[in-house]
Amino acid sequence: xxxxxxxxVETERLVIVNRRRRVAWCSxxxxxxxxxxxxxxxxFAHVNSRTIFRWAESGVVHSSETPEGLLLICxxxxxxx
Length: 81
Known about the structure:
Layout: E1 23-26, E2 31-34, E3 36-37, H1 38-45, H2 49-58, E4 63-65, E5 71-73
Antiparallel strand pairs: 1-2, 3-5, 4-5
Helix pairs in contact: 1-2
C-alpha cells in the first residue's frame, strides 16, 4: 500500500520601505499622496525598474515628475491594488 504525502507551503511577504517622505500631487487621484520612487515601486510590484518606467510612459501607473526630474509613482495606481 502506497501513502501519499501532500505538503502545503504558505508564504507571506511584507515590504517595509524606510525612506524620506515624498508627498506629491497625483493628477489622476486628484489629491496629494505619499509617492514611491522608481526603485520602491519596482520592489512593491515585484518587477524591475525598467518595467516601472515603461508603465509610467504608457499610463499604466500614475506618475509625477519633480522639478529636479525625479519620477515618482503613485501607490494607488490600479497595478498596485
